[in-house]
Write a structure and sequence with these properties.
mainly alpha, Arc Repressor Mutant, subunit A, two-stranded antiparallel sheet
Length: 143
C-alpha cells in the first residue's frame, strides 16, 4: 500500500518530519532522551543532537531536560512540545486523507517490486481505476 510521508520545512535547515516527531513521542512515553533513542535504535548522542535541533527550531522549548543526579535526570515534552506533535499529526492525517485517491492511482501504476513491469495485463493501464495517469491531477495546478 502506498503511503505518504510528511516533512514540514519551517525555514532553512529547520525541518520537522516523521523521525523527529517519533523521537518526541518516545520522549513523552519514556521520560528520557536516552530511553527514547534506545527505543528507536539510535545513540544517545544522535537523539540529543536531534532534540537540540528541534528546540533551536522553535521560539519555545519543545523538550525540557533535567540534568542527571540522584534522581537520574530525565526529559519531557513541554506543553508547547505536545502541541507541536499534535499539529504535525493533524497535518499528516489531513494530507493522507486528501491524497488517498491519488495514492491508489499511483500505486496501481507502480512497477512490481520484483522488477516485473506488469506487461501481463494483471493491472489496467494508468492508476488501476481505468483512468490514465498521464492527464492533469485532480484539482492540480501542475505543482
Amino acid at each position: 500500500m502506498a503511503t505518504l510521508s510528511i516533512r514540514i520545512d519551517l525555514g532553512p535547515g529547520n525541518r520537522l518530519g516523521p523521525g523527529k516527531v517519533q523521537l518526541l513521542e518516545m520522549i513523552a512515553a519514556h521520560g528520557s532522551i536516552s530511553a527514547a533513542g534506545r527505543a528507536l535504535g539510535m545513540s544517545y548522542r544522535r537523539a540529543w543532537m536531534l532534540v537540540e535541533a528541534i528546540n533551536a527550531g522553535f521560539r519555545q522549548p519543545v523538550v525540557e531536560a533535567q540534568i542527571g543526579g540522584r534522581s537520574g535526570g530525565g526529559a519531557r515534552l513541554s506543553a508547547f512540545g505536545a502541541e507541536v506533535v499534535a499539529q504535525y499529526r493533524a497535518v499528516e492525517r489531513l494530507a493522507a486523507e486528501a491524497a488517498a485517491p491519488l495514492l491508489v492511482r499511483l500505486e496501481g501504476a507502480a512497477a512490481d517490486p520484483s522488477g516485473d513491469r506488469g506487461g501481463s495485463g494483471d493491472r489496467p493501464e494508468g492508476g488501476g481505476d481505468g483512468a490514465p495517469l498521464g492527464g492533469e491531477i485532480a484539482g492540480g495546478d501542475g505543482a
